[in-house]
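JOB MANIFEST
job_type = single_chain_structure
chain_count = 1
residues = 418
[input]
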Amino acid sequence: MTLKQSARDTHPRLLAINNYFYRRGGAESIFFEHMQLFQEIGWDVVPFAMQHPENRASPWSEYFVSEIEYGRKSSPLTKIVQAGKIIYSFEAQRKIEALIERAPPDIAHAHNVYHHISPSIFPTLKKAGIPTVMTVHDLKLACPAYKMLVDGHICEECRGGRIYNVVRHRCIKQSTALSGLVLLETMVHRGLGLYRHKVDKFVVPSRFYREKLIEWGWPPEQLVYISNFVDTQGFSTDWEESDYFVYAGRLAPEKGIATLIRAAALSKQRLVIAGTGPEEKALRALAEELGADVAFAGHVSGERLARLIGEAKALVLPSEWYENAPVSILEAYALGRPVIGADIGGIPEMIIKGETGMTAVSGDAEDLARVISIMADLPPAARARMGSNGRDWIAREFSSDAYRDRMVDLYAALGASQ
């Protein structure tokens, strides 16, 4: 019996793995929604994560690994123990072994595991004969620092195994010690083949990331493109367009927000920035210096965020790093709004130029200003039509049903091969 058949007959079990068991970011949103989609079709879903004060309640939390939270003060001994767990967690091995003995899964699906749970769990799953899938949320499989970014610029110097560059450039928080730890982590993980030889398939949400990993030596047959998703029915399109463009996300250097503020000043368009992060003070100063019409809305979520995007002329993603497959683009379409995105990473494949939005040269304020001006000069009905096209597109290609069907097919293929 295949997994696809058993889904109809006997309630197969999914072991869902992620560092955090609360909605911390985009990876966690996909993680929780993935679990819910399979619960809705009758699967038994068992989570495995890290203990944390903000975690959701779970009857399986006794099997979660001990908390590692880097922002908190701790003793030198605790830091040494945590460093060891980052590289290889024997605790995670023991706990997942106990969990799969208690609740044997048909399939294991991991999301983010590095630096907390660690990939030490993969040999245990392999030994138990459990097919294992991992979603690639960033570029950790290629880049030790996971972003391919140094000093605000794209960097691919570690390609071909030259991972010592992570220390040379002090890629981790500009710290030689932390960068050295990540170098050691990468050497151990690669030496033991914890990802390459212990994970059966990697789900890659963007075609760009799949091609980039292949460029860096990953076998194409191990990488399966399955896009991220949203359920359009959960989003209203009943908005009255206002007079601003919007950015929503973390205020970090790689997000290109300084370029966006310069573009807003050049195009003389009103901009609302929703989010917080380390660059906020500098960005506020830049907006004031340029006399740009920029409002900082702070952290916004839920209905307020939906309204903020839904009433905008367009959502703007001015990224200056290799974005994967931003769910924010899908959510903007679901709200009936067009998108302006930088032509970098996986962003361009999520925009049909002239039909659902527009693209601009990444890091180029003048080109972004040009594109923003073109979008602003369109009649409101034309922008609404773009947003509607985007919503129709994702309802077909980026829906929760399409995601679940593709994932069930993948699980079935792995189950049939056992």
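[summary]
The two ends are 11 Å apart (CA to CA).
The first strand starts at residue 13 and ends at 17.
exit_status = 0
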